[in-house]
Design brief:
about 0% strand
Length: about 230
């Protein structure tokens, strides 16, 4: 075999080897891209499901918050007016239901896990990442408000109720029937003149209004994220 033919053969073998390596790299890249695409789709779908679940929880909590705000407003109006003894008692019996400790359980596990594990890198759309951050920050704001309400309840409200009311009278209606009746009664006339009670109810009303405002903002953030998720499909 001539030197020229040998050189040509070696060259062809080299080309084949290089082409094989490049093809292998291309296949690996294609496969990795496909796997990553599947992971991204699964992540986005899970985030979407979490948001839908949170909106459902939020709708129920919003109704509870509106009910508490309505009861708080009714008690303040009664305290500011000149109600009959029966009207006063009927309204003041709702004190316990105004001070029920609220709370909620947003579903945000997928996003939190993605942030902590680094899987958030799978989301390449910068607008979506920003929207998700804003959404989670709004949830954190709500958590802070509920935490503040809880601190105020145990620090101020509960001691006040223990000192000034008979719990079996002012407990939430669904709970009241299971409690033992006390041999003494709450002085609702004196209670209605309490500046401390007025301040406590006013604070709770302000907190409920803040909760409703944050729910409205969270709903807007949720809609923003869902719209961007729809564009990813």
């Amino acid at each position: 075999m001539s030197t020229e033919k040998k050189s040509t053969g070696v060259l062809l073998e080299g080309v084949v080897i290089v082409a094989s390596i490049l093809l292998a790299f291309a296949i690996d890249a294609w496969w990795d891209s496909r796997v990553e695409s599947r992971e991204r789709s699964a992540l986005l779908q899970s985030i979407r499901e979490d948001i839908i679940a949170t909106r459902s929880v939020m709708a129920a909590e919003r109704q509870d918050s509106l009910a508490v705000a309505a009861r708080a407003t009714a008690i303040l109006e009664t305290m500011a007016g000149e109600p009959s003894e029966e009207e006063l008692r009927e309204t003041m019996l709702e004190i316990g239901s105004v001070f029920v400790i609220g709370g909620w359980s947003p579903v945000i596990d997928t996003y939190a896990e993605a942030v902590n594990s680094g899987r958030l890198r799978l989301i390449e759309d910068e607008a979506l990442r920003v929207a998700l951050f804003r959404y989670s920050a709004q949830i954190a704001e709500l958590d802070d408000i509920f935490g503040e309400v809880s601190v105020q309840y145990y620090g101020q409200i509960e001691p006040f109720l223990v000192a000034n009311t008979v719990y079996s009278e002012i407990a939430a209606a669904w709970w009241r029937g299971s409690l033992v009746e006390a041999p003494f009664a709450t002085d609702f006339a004196a209670l209605s003149q309490s500046r401390e009670l007025w301040n406590l109810i006013t604070f709770r009303l302000e907190m409920e209004l803040a909760v409703q405002d944050r729910f409205d903002r969270l709903e807007s953030r949720a809609e923003e994220v869902l719209a961007l998720l729809a564009n990813q499909e």
